[in-house]
Amino acid sequence: MTKEPKEVKEVTTSRVACDGGEGGHPRVWLQIPGEHGWVECPYCDCKFVLKDGAAAGH
DSSP assignment of 18-50, as one string? Predict the structure, then answer.
């Protein structure tokens, strides 16, 4: 059984920061792998998806 992400955010860069919002968790920097196009935060399960047309690695 797969767990649904808490929230999905479209981003324009492959490196993103997540702190879980107010009173969330420590800030972590995540790298979206080019082969997947998305990454999930290990703390809050927020899913960051690279927008169509955004260049991976930027």
Answer: E--STT----EEEE--TTTSEEE-TTT--EEEE
